[in-house]
Amino acid sequence: MRHKHSDYMHWSKTRSRARFNLATSGVAAFPLHELPVDLEELEINGDNSYGYAPLQSAIAGHHGVDPECVVEAAGTSMANHLAMAAIIEPGDEVLIEHPAYGPILDVARYLGRESETLPTHGRKWLGSGSGEIRRSVTPKTRLIVITNLHNPTSVLTPDSVLREVGDIARSVGALVLVDEVYLDAVYEETPEPHSTSVPSF
Description:
The protein is α/β, with parallel strands linked by helices. It has a domain at about 75-200: 3-Layer(aba) Sandwich (Aspartate Aminotransferase, domain 2), CATH 3.40.640.10. The protein contains 7 helices and 4 strands; from the N terminus they run αααβαβααβαβ. The protein has a 4-stranded parallel beta sheet with strand order 2-1-3-4, with helices on both faces. It is globular, with a radius of gyration of 19 Å. The chain starts with 6 loop residues before the first helix and ends in a 22-residue tail after the last strand.
């Protein structure tokens, strides 16, 4: 079996010297004796096969579904993987912005799907309109993947453009996956997440 390697993740973990590195999702090393807890009272094990049960119940209640329909992801990259694996089938086309968050491209390749990267030229297309997506979709398009704030440029996509993308996706029977893990980094007038306002997944 060929080893799956992400150039992006390798660079972010070994070469980046940024003071605040948002490219990694790990926790920095921290001496245990400095934690403000009694380690003998700290319990980190338990029944967590598919997630933290109280959280799953709360999510299920919010969406009116059975808790057994909820799977908790250990981070956004895993959530993207689960969503893409649930949506796309062999032969489906996935449109992914470029430049893109490397692991999203890796998931599409890992799943063996046909993926098309959109030539975004610094992602200006989502700042001014959705014409590039309209020109790129085909009857085979099943999923359009966007990060908002964009990773890696941090560009915010206007709500009106996201709605246009949703309309385009609907016209060909596709879905939109909007990864908004960094949306809270808009510190003033932070937009609401779009999971309930556009046809995202």
